């Protein structure tokens, strides 16, 4: 997904959350609703999160330098992880605390009609933001299922906003139910309980977002179809007599690093071998524009080894262990 599309999703969510937060806090102040106060905190946290996502996207676009030769693409993964921590600590923590406090020291809700009006507008704003995020997410998920698309997605900006907006909509529904039941029964405990449930929703959202972002932050490989496609491009060269391993890693949503170890025919000269490696590099980058750097190590003669079953089926977690010998040809293409 282009960065401009991702930013559009975040800007829409940020604008909506600012408007919603103001109305929720006004309603909480006039009515004394614990659930409405939790929802206000939720919207403030979401607004801050969108600001952090925009900052992360800006930092991720910084060019590579001597200290970070592969660029700053992983900044977006780091700030997405920070967002998950903030949702858990600030959003979930404060909501659960406020709910427990309200149960211990219950108070009546004044003028509940104001809460209903605010929740109605909030559902409208959040629903519009959610719809934009959902359309963008649907456009990039392709033929995958929604859960699989999240698990295999490499750009956390869209599914982070989608997670937040989904949690916000669920929280609003819970707040509405809690306030309504408390209003018709006169029991203030339902309002505090709704606040606790909102906190649990936020905690679950934070956990899932942190879990999905963790792999990207550590160094997740490219999707299986990309690795398989790279393997096919390498194997189409008759001079290649076997692939030892293909290692890939996302350095950012639009930056894939590729390391290939292969066996090349021992009866061709060095110039021809380098021409083969250059052609492999060019073919990979043409088919997969997100591949920015390709490193190839070629072995010839008796130093060549046959790939294991695990290596033929996908990327390995470890590089080749054998020492570099004079028979090896290394190619590093930029």
Key terms for this structure?
334 residues, Alpha-Beta Plaits, four-stranded mixed sheet, 11% strand
Provide a concise account of the structure shown.
With 334 residues, the chain is of the alpha+beta class. Helix content is 65%, strand content 11%.
Q: Which secondary structure elements does this structure contain, and how are they paired or packed?
A:
Blueprint: H1 3-31, H2 34-60, H3 75-104, H4 112-141, H5 146-152, H6 156-185, H7 189-218, H8 224-235, E1 240-252, E2 255-264, H9 270-287, E3 291-299, H10 309-313, E4 328-333
Parallel strand pairs: 2-3
Antiparallel strand pairs: 1-2, 3-4
Helix pairs in contact: 1-2, 1-4, 1-6, 2-3, 2-6, 2-7, 3-7, 4-6, 6-7
Overview of the molecule:
- The chain has 334 residues and is α+β, with helices and mostly antiparallel strands.
- The protein has 2 domains: 3-218, Alpha-lytic protease prodomain-like (Up-down Bundle); 224-333, Alpha-Beta Plaits.
- The chain has 10 helices and 4 strands.
- A 4-stranded mixed sheet has the order 1-2-3-4.
- The longest helix has 30 residues, at 75-104.
- The chain is elongated and about 90 Å long.
- The model is unreliable at 302-329 (pLDDT under 50).
């Amino acid at each position: 997904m282009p960065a401009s599309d991702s930013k559009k999703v975040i800007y829409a969510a940020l604008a909506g959350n600012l408007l919603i937060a103001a109305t929720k806090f006004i309603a909480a102040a006039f009515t004394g609703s614990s659930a409405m106060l939790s929802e206000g905190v939720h919207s403030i946290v979401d607004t801050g999160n969108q600001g952090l996502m925009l900052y992360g996207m800006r930092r991720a676009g910084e060019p590579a330098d001597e200290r970070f030769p592969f660029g700053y693409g992983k900044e977006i993964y780091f700030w997405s992880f920070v967002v998950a921590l903030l949702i858990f600590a600030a959003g979930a923590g404060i909501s659960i605390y406020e709910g427990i406090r309200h149960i211990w020291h219950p108070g009546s809700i004044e003028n509940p009609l104001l809460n209903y009006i605010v929740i109605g507008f909030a559902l409208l704003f959040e629903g519009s933001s959610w719809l934009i995020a959902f359309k963008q997410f649907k456009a990039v998920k392709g033929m995958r299922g929604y859960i699989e698309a999240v698990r295999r997605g490499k750009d956390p900006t869209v599914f982070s906003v989608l997670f937040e907006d989904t949690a916000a909509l669920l929280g609003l529904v819970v707040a509405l139910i809690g306030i309504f039941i408390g209003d018709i029964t006169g029991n203030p405990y339902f309002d505090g309980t709704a606040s606790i449930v909102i906190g649990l929703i936020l905690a679950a959202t934070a956990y899932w977002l942190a879990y999905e972002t963790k792999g990207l932050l550590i160094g997740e490989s490219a999707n299986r179809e990309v690795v398989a496609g790279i393997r096919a491009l390498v194997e189409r060269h008759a001079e290649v007599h076997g692939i030892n391993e293909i290692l890939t890693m996302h350095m950012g949503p639009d930056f894939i690093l590729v390391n290939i170890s292969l066996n090349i025919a021992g009866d061709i000269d060095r110039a021809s071998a380098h021409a083969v490696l250059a052609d492999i590099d060019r073919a990979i980058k043409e088919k997969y524009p997100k591949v920015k750097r390709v490193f190839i190590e070629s072995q010839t003669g008796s130093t060549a080894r046959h790939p294991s079953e695990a290596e033929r089926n996908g990327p390995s977690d470890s590089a080749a262990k054998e020492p570099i010998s004079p028979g090896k040809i290394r190619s590093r293409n930029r």
